[in-house]
Design brief:
- The structure holds 2 protein chains of 2 kinds.
- Chain A is mostly beta strands.
- In chain A, about 0% of the residues lie in helices and about 50% in strands.
- Chain A has no helices and 11 strands.
- In chain A, strands 2, 4, 5, 6, 9, 10 and 11 form a 7-stranded mixed beta sheet that branches. A 4-stranded antiparallel beta sheet of chain A has the order 1-3-8-7, with no helix packed on it.
- Chain B is mainly β.
- Helix content of chain B is about 0%, strand content about 55%.
- Chain B has strands at about 5, 10-15, 20-25, 30-40, 45-50, 55-60, 60-65, 70-75, 85-95, 100, 105-110.
- Classes of the chains: A mainly beta, B mainly beta.
- The interface between A and B is medium-sized, with 28 and 26 residues.
Chain lengths: ~110, ~110
């Protein structure tokens, strides 16, 4: 399967702990995106990479959040000092360098902060 | 930034009927609009893209219209089936490269 993969699929953590999620995009895609989705809402943009460069970050991305894409392939999203409000589905998507930004999503990582 | 409104209520229809979902947006007219399907616990799946100069786009039982004057897109599923039950998301370009999504419409097709 050459789709977008994410790991882990589920993560339960205690408030104050750090968590890290991984995303492996479709191999030929240059662009990679992170979104967050809560129940009953659409995905909300967090950040975007083109190759290894992080080109845009949402105001939703507080200082406790950091994302990397060190070699322009997989990406990690780290949340430090997790809060209960961080509980959500974290979605990764990738796209090729075309003008329409059709994005291919992974299955998501469901984070529960107790 | 764009504000997107989709059918606020869940939509229940009988199998075989046509489902029509609405996406309204404010502010600037986008160069294109996309529709995605999302099943519970899974990521969204791209269905269709329609550009601002296209009035209508079809793919199998799916049809999308785009009215830039009304700032509205309609998404139709003809001859609906229970397997079409899912949440359908409308998305517009939201900035440099990201998408801004509506909150989705939950469609249930009853057998």
């Amino acid at each position: 399967d050459t789709g977008v993969s994410q790991d882990p699929r589920h993560k339960i953590t205690k408030r104050g702990q750090n968590v890290t999620f991984r995303c492996d995009p479709i191999s030929e895609h240059n662009r990679l995106y992170w979104y967050r989705q809560t129940l009953g809402q659409g995905p909300e943009f967090l950040t975007y990479f083109q190759n290894e460069a992080q080109l845009e970050k949402s105001r939703l991305l507080s200082d406790r959040f950091s994302a990397e894409r060190p070699k322009g392939s997989f990406s990690t999203l780290e949340i430090q000092r997790t809060e209960q409000g961080d509980s959500a589905m974290y979605l990764c998507a990738s796209s090729s360098l075309d003008a329409t930004d059709t994005q291919y999503f992974g299955p998501g990582t469901r984070l529960t902060v107790l | 930034s764009q504000k997107i409104e989709q059918n606020s209520e869940a939509l229940n229809i009988q199998e075989g009927k046509t489902a029509t979902l609405t996406c309204n947006y404010t502010n600037y007219s986008p160069a294109y609009l996309q529709w995605y399907r999302q099943d519970p616990g899974r990521g969204p799946v791209f269905l269709l893209l329609i550009r601002e100069n296209e009035k209508e786009k079809r793919k199998e039982r799916l049809k999308v219209t785009f009215d830039t004057t009304l700032k509205q897109s309609l998404f139709h599923i003809t001859a609906s089936q229970p397997a079409d039950s899912a949440t359908y998301l409308c998305a517009l370009p939201g900035g440099a490269r990201q998408l801004t999504f509506g909150s989705g419409t939950q469609l249930t097709v009853l057998p």
